[in-house]
Specification:
The complex is a heterotrimer of chains A (about 300), B (about 325) and C (about 290). Chain A is an all-alpha fold and about 300 residues long. Chain A contains 14 helices and no strands. The longest helix of chain A has about 35 residues, at about 85-120. Chain A starts with a helix and ends in a 6-residue tail after the last helix. Chain B has one domain (about 5-320): P-loop containing nucleotide triphosphate hydrolases (Rossmann fold), CATH 3.40.50.300. Helix content of chain B is about 35%, strand content about 25%. Chain B has 13 helices and twelve strands. With about 290 residues, chain C is an all-alpha fold. In chain C, helix 1 crosses helix 3 and helix 3 (about 85-120) packs antiparallel against helix 4. The radius of gyration of chain C is 24 Å and the shape is elongated. In chain C, about 45% of the residues are buried. The chains are: A mainly alpha (about 300), B alpha/beta (about 325), C mainly alpha (about 290). Chains in contact: A-B, A-C, B-C. At the A-C interface, helix 1, helix 6, helix 7, helix 11 and helix 12 of A face helix 4, helix 5, helix 9 and helix 11 of C.
Amino acid sequence: MLRFLTGRLLRAALTIAMVVTFAFIVLRLSGDPAQIIMGADAPPEAVEAFRAAWGLDAPLWQQYLRYFGAILNGDLGRSMRDGRDAITLVAERIPATLALTIPALVIKLSIGIPAGILAALHRNSLLDRLVMALAVAGFTVPSFVLGLLLVLVFAVQLGWLPSGGQESWRHAILPIITMGVGGAAVLARFTRSAMLEVLGQSYIRTASAKGVPWRDVVWGHALPNAAIPTVTIVGFMVGSLIAGAVVVESVFSWPGVGRLLVVAVANRDLAVVQCILLLVAGTMVASNLVVDLLYGVLDPRLRAGKMGAQ
Amino acid sequence: MSVLLQARDLVRRYRMRRGIFGRAVELRAVDGLSLTLERGRTLGLVGESGCGKSTTGRLVLGLEAPDAGQVQVDGAPMPPIGGRAWRQQRARMQMVFQDPLGALDRRLSIGAQVEEPLIIHGLPAGPARVAELLMEAGLRPDHAQRYPHELSGGQRQRAVLARALATAPELLVCDEPISALDVSIQAQVMNLLMELQARRGMAMLFISHDLRAVRQVSHRIAVMYLGRIVEEGEPDEVLKTPAHPYSRALVSAIPHPGRRGRRILLTGDPPNPADRPSGCAFHPRCAEAVARCRIEAPVLRPRPDGRLVACHLAHAPLLSQVA
Amino acid sequence: MADVSPITPPAFTEAPKRQRSRLPLPIAFALGWLGLMLAVAVLADLVSPYAYTALDLRNRLSPPIGLGGTWLHPLGTDELGRDVLSRLISSIRTSLLIAFGATLIGAVVGTSLGLLAAQFRGLVEQAVMALVDFSASLPFLILALAVLAFFGNSLVLFICLLGLHAWERYARIARGLAISANAQGYAAAVRQLGASAWRVQGRHVLPNIASTLIVSMTLAFPEIILLESGLSFLGLGVQPPATSLGSMVGYGREYLTRAPWILLSPAAIIVTTTFAVSLLGDWLRDRLDPTLS
């Protein structure tokens, strides 16, 4: 078990290192940062001073090492807009994003998974078709369209809910619904096909033929086996929480990490972008690690080791 | 009969990880195997699943490189795999597979696939030549326009044969060629193979777990167990008086109407090449094993009557009374 | 049916005719819609009533036909008096162009890398799988945003960037199918006939995996549309004066209360087109390759 953990941790660290390297490469490839930041018409002395201040005049590998070292030290640079530490800026916004994404995740899981399971159990029934239709709608309607439609209906026409900002808990309702619905649709669709695949296996037929009550077959055999691929996709969803928040926070002017990212990209505020990049990578890696561990627990085939594999 | 191919002390290892949590184990699919293939003669290779017969077939053809040992064709070593010389040598040696549907490209017509080796090796091609090959394998010329999924299992195997014979190979390795076929078709394909060998003078390596089929088609039989040959000799002799305990068990398992002898049931777990027993690989399941069998692996040696056996007891039957 | 027959002329030589299956209605609609979109995209200049940048300052924010507008501007105008219909047509062209370009780039890059990994195994395969892992380690949106931040924005860069969105899917599929073909199947058989690697891959493997790849492409296409419109909505995708469906929604957002039609028509097009392609993709998958999930 220990060997497995260390292996996974190493891989996680490697992935983060790759992301850092990627950020560095892209940063350097994109041209002279000093020139970009100072602007095309800045006087050459100012550009030089900037370059020296940021250590951009050293050889490339030195810059890389310094860069890596700085990140390990927790120094992710300053926002070029307001001069504060990038980390502080991002950290400030995390609670706001969590306030949206966690309830949204709850919605996705509590609606999506049961819907998918029910649809699979009553295949081709009205319920199934309804769930699938809604699921497709949830998938094909992008979150910004859904968000805007909700605003149009509930805020503009009906005036029940506010349309933007973060003043009260009421402001969070529409964004949470927008985020939750899309994810629930994807999850419903996925859970349904995972269940269908499991239900089609011969061991299900065997259990049923042996006289095991259907309820027990589902709870004892089908669900646990369908849980395995479902866990993977839930892990992916958790890992990409911030990505999902990007568009929704912009639609509703919600001051979270996602909105910060968009603004930073528009202003080419590289330190902030970088910081958020690492945050997202960290979240993804952590959630993948948890999924892998869960896999080891859920799938006895992995626990015992596959013998005779070619 | 002249020797076409000689394989000496072949070893083929695979590295496996025992589950995610375990350490790496080495799996010896083939462990010190030697055989000789003569022109115009068939060597039958028998054994249960997992004993390494298919791997042997691939090593003999040069489709895989052995980790130790050597394969020589006409006295010359096998050229490096994938290289130009190796590709050209393919025209001389071909394989017939267990799953004819898998061995054929489902998108191309039979005719196109039978013609392909001719094109690859620059031999005269064309519909007439293809029709010739198809007929030799027992198909009709109009089968050339059909697709693999439109043919029956037996017909597909004939198509694979036609393709294999296109370049007039001197060696044909058949890896379980009839296992996937209906019993009624099996006999026909066997007859075809024997006919083709007689007509073309090919050497053949016939790999199967079916003793009776092997007996019908081979001039010589070799019995394999866990990557080694444990017995080798004339088919009728081996089947009538098997010398190795494993061969005896195999032979006794052949259903025979009116047989009165007892079936030998092997005890113990089926062989696992990743967890090879010490000494003789068969000793955990052998009813006649003695202390020596656990310590020392027997070598394949000839008996006075010409039979090759790898068993301590076969060569020194008196030992069983002493140990 | 005798297997070993004497040489007699066959009774008949054709294989039985295949049933012509009718297209289900939703699929027919989907195809029709997509055909319409393609036609609009190709004929944009001919079909568009006005240039998409043409201003009509006297008719600013005029509503579309059902809500009090005139036939002068059937879908209304925006805050600068630009005809929404014309802008919509131009947007359709831009969005579809980007989506096709990106899908093709992703498929070509992904398939090539996958085939290379399957052919050469060893170090090449490890390198490709490491890249695949890396791609999967970050949500694509974030990667795209990072690249856009660092590189700024140009149409070519944007298309290439979007092209990389699903490359690892094609790589995985190509590698998986090629490996199984190589190991047990027809590719191994042809290789042992003496065929060169090029012949094996080009004449056998690629045509056989093509249908799976095409299904994958059809399934990835709507994702690219959504991605592009999302990024353009945020103002980070297609830049003015060019216009795309997403950027129209983005610009129309400020007039949500006063002139919702500005963003509703591009939004409707996005949803319908995505839906149509998804439907088509699912149907194709069910017909060609039920093994894909």
